[in-house]
Amino acid sequence: MTAEQHGTTGDDTTGVQTPEKGHRAVFRIPGTALIGVLMLFMCMFPFAATLPYLLPLLIVPIAVAVWIMRTRTVATRDGLEVRTMLGTRQLPWDALKGFSLTPKASVVAVLSDDTKVALPSVRTRHLPVLSLVSEGRVPDPSGLLSEPADEPEKNEDGTGAAGSDAEGATDARAGENPESDRTDDTVSEDRDAR
């Protein structure tokens, strides 16, 4: 998956090109998959060259290569462009009702009329990217893009609230192992006694 800033808007007063507000994300199969297709072709070629009736088998690696290069989902400010082996479909953000997740972590777009459109190469980990590219029209279910929380309050000794949580975590682990019932001070005293 690649995400890149796309497009510029001209500024006539300074002559400097500034990036426009939107971004573009392309979700596709990595190009390195073509190495496997090339190897498949090289393995099939000797058999196809020897026996002429096996020559049509060379169509298989060629079709797989076209599928790898063609299949993708492109997300822009305007919507999604879903490219498959046989066609292209434009899905504006306003036409989307939401997303559906499959058991294999794939994402399916659900349109306003409840039809489902598979999004090639888009996985659940890509949902924050779709939210960013759509400029908030698609909510981020992971919360990665939400505002950062306020800093934790400081105690009198200068430690944050995380310091008190660390003590609680030690206490929570204490019941798991009888050796862990001793505090750090007891361990230090044992070392000094040796």
Automatic annotation (TrEMBL):
InterPro entries: CFP-6_PH
Annotated region (Disordered), positions in chain: 138-194
Bilayer-spanning residue ranges: 25-47, 53-69
Biased composition regions of type Basic and acidic residues, renumbered to the chain: 173-194
Domain Low molecular weight protein antigen 6 PH: 70-140
Keyword Signal belongs to the record: no
Keyword list, A-Z: Membrane, Sugar transport, Transmembrane, Transmembrane helix, Transport
Pfam families found in the cross-reference section: bPH_6
Entry protein name: ABC-type sugar transport system, permease component
